[in-house]
Design brief:
Rossmann fold, seven-stranded parallel β-sheet, alpha/beta, four-stranded mixed β-sheet, Dihydrodipicolinate Reductase, domain 2, 32% helix, 7 helices
Length: 253
């Protein structure tokens, strides 16, 4: 029986908290192999790291494996640089950077024409169910209803509102139909709160609240690992996490 070769995975970022969580998950997965750590901005060497888990490279073209899956949970500028370099490097991409703008969307569309790209502001599988509930409520409620979104994150989070908050607001607005106003978003950046989103909707005589709170970054991993395995063998195109869950993981040969 032929034993499948593990999927080579490169993780962007050397010091980011989510990057560290993803690296460890890849190391622990028998069907994945951490082939490199990618830092597009060369940092000072860390003398305390005597036995690094994978080599550090500073250009996408220097990755040691052909056709790896590159995972990116960094910042807007680094993600733009990654997408720019990916134009000429054959690799699949799993992107979880929040706060992506129009420039990123143009680059994603261009890069996605030649390889699989999975992009999501939030890789929680539970959030998919929250989103469906918000869409159903918006579609079924009458004209007296409106909604707002609360967004709470740790003090160091740079984008405001978060990509998840904008995603939930767009889900409500899209389900309400053409011309519907977007829900107001209120953002807080306080202490060490990891991630909390609250959708508040109200109509005549009714009030509904939906709360999604992340207490541990490892809760994102089922969605991230599913996206990695999907991107490793999927055809070209830009997809969200909902698409990954809806479609079967292609067989890797």
């Amino acid at each position: 029986m032929t034993v499948p070769v593990p999927v080579p995975v490169a993780v962007c970022g050397l010091t980011g908290r989510m990057a560290g969580v993803v690296r460890q998950a890849v190391l622990d997965a028998p069907d994945l192999a951490l082939s490199a750590r990618l830092s597009l901005r060369p940092p000072a060497p860390d003398p305390a790291e005597a036995n690094p888990p994978a080599p550090v490279v500073h250009r996408l073209a220097d990755l040691p494996d052909a056709h790896p899956v590159v995972v990116d949970f960094t910042a807007e500028e680094a993600t733009a640089e990654l997408l720019d370099q990916a134009r000429t490097v054959p690799c699949a991409l799993v992107i979880g950077t929040s706060g992506l703008g129009e420039r990123h969307q143009r680059l994603l569309a261009e890069v996605g024409r030649s390889r699989a790209v999975v992009v999501a502001a939030n890789y929680s599988l539970a959030l998919l169910a929250v989103t469906r509930f918000v869409e159903d409520l918006a579609a079924q409620s009458d004209d007296s209803w409106n909604a707002g979104v609360g967004d709470l994150h740790f003090a160091g989070k740079r984008d405001r509102p978060s990509g998840t908050a904008r995603h939930l607001a767009a889900a409500w607005q899209g389900a309400r139909g053409p011309g519907a106003p977007a829900p107001d978003i209120t953002s807080f950046r306080l202490g060490d709160a990891l991630s909390e989103h609250r959708v508040v909707a109200a109509g005549s005589g009714e009030h509904v609240e939906v709360l999604h709170r992340m207490a541990d970054r490892r809760a994102f991993l089922p969605g991230v690992l599913r996206a990695i395995r999907y991107a490793a063998t999927a055809g070209p195109g830009v997809r969200g996490l909902a698409d990954v869950v809806r479609e079967p993981v292609p067989v890797r040969r």
